[in-house]
């Protein structure tokens, strides 16, 4: 149109991703018709023809030819004398179609039009991003670190959409610099102040599940299913898997030859120790597998209270418990049973339960010793002073006093 260059505005609109042409044309027409309504009071007698490829449009107004003395609404009617100036063949009752020039609207109307169009474009873009990522919840996305804050990291995807990775959803050993590539799972998408807020996570069990799908074709194809995942991000994870095909070893398929498949996952999770166990409905066998790498001697199950007493050789107790009790805690969560470990009865009549020393040792200290699998005096003395301090987190003087009490029992 004369004196109105909308090419820049059209270009902005055309750059939008996944906006269909029908929606584009509809929004543009709505914006222009809103200007016509403000200018003329109605837009019903106007035809808006948009050409987004060229960046221009044409607006035509239709008016009825009336006698000069009967002219009441110049927007809907045109006098016969004026119509004759356009074409001498016009007669009363016919429709006259003429082009409307935006240069007659004034600078303020044109400015409002561009602002309204930009606002509608931005609104469409936000809705599009929201809908796109709403469908990606539970999927892995890749982006580039753009900005790092104390509580979260701003990540940009390939289309420069903003994604947030909170500190609480990062693996403790994660360390990112601007420009680094990050993989994470989409956990939630919501609108805040009309802006899409896309949250990511690297600590979710679903993130580990999706990584297995990427690395293990049998899981992606549905031949192997992941029954349950329990993890302490960056430390240890236990994954229970089951195969629908008896010919496929689910654990072997997940680990890969010489660990080829699981190594990529471990690296992505900053060397998180991953135990893959074969799921079974046999509770005792399932608990035994969940306590890997410890070798279990026997298990006593209490179905009513969902508890399991596990008996092991003395040298296997620390393996079952794990560093800081991590292994037994994850095994309990994986199986759904509260697991207590006990040393297998030893052929040593001289050994004494540490409960017998309750008059000399505080109950909370006895509890600390039991938490690392030491329930007899000799089981405590088998550990070095340094190991006792490290594993129980007791004071040096307290450990020395305990050792003296137990040693004096057997002197």
Layout of helices and strands, plus pairs?
Layout (H helix, E strand, L loop, with lengths): L6 H8 L6 H20 L5 E6 L4 E11 L10 E3 H7 L8 E5 L7 H28 L5 E9 L3 E5 L5 E5 L14 E12 L2 E7 L3 H11 L1 H4 L3 E9 L3 E8 L6 H6 L4 H9 L4 E6 L4 H8 L5 E7 L4 E6 L1 H8 L4 H10 L2 E6 L19 H9 L5 H5 L3 H8 L3 H14 L2
Parallel strand pairs: 2-3, 11-12, 14-15
Antiparallel strand pairs: 1-2, 2-4, 5-6, 5-8, 6-7, 8-9, 10-11, 13-14
Helix pairs in contact: 2-4, 5-8, 9-11
Q: What amount of the residues lies in strands?
A: 25-35%
Q: Report the order of strands and helices.
A: HHEEEHEHEEEEEHHEEHHEHEEHHEHHHH
Shape: elongated
Largest sheet strand order: 7-6-5-8-9
| SS-based class | alpha+beta
Give me the oligomer status: single chain
- Count of individual helical segments: 15
Question: Quick one: CATH superfamily of one domain?
Answer: NusA, N-terminal domain
Overall pLDDT metric: 85
CATH architecture of one domain: 2-Layer Sandwich
What is the number of E strands?
15
Distance from first to last alpha carbon: 107 Å
The CATH topology assignment of one domain is N Utilization Substance Protein A, Chain:P, domain 4
What is the makeup of the main sheet? 5 strands, antiparallel
Query: Considering DSSP H and I runs of 4 or more, what fraction of the residues is helical?
Result: 25-40%
Question: What Rg, in angstroms, do the CA atoms define?
Answer: 37 Å
Organism: Halosquirtibacter laminarini
Protein name: Transcription termination factor NusA
What does this structure look like?
- This protein is of the alpha+beta class and 411 residues long.
- Among the domains are: 7-131, N Utilization Substance Protein A, Chain:P, domain 4; 136-201, OB fold (Dihydrolipoamide Acetyltransferase, E2P); 354-409.
- The chain contains 15 helices and 15 strands.
- The strands form four sheets. The chain has a five-stranded antiparallel sheet.
- The longest helix is centred in the N-terminal third of the chain and has 28 residues, at 107-134.
- The termini are far apart.
- Residues 1-5 have low confidence and may be disordered.
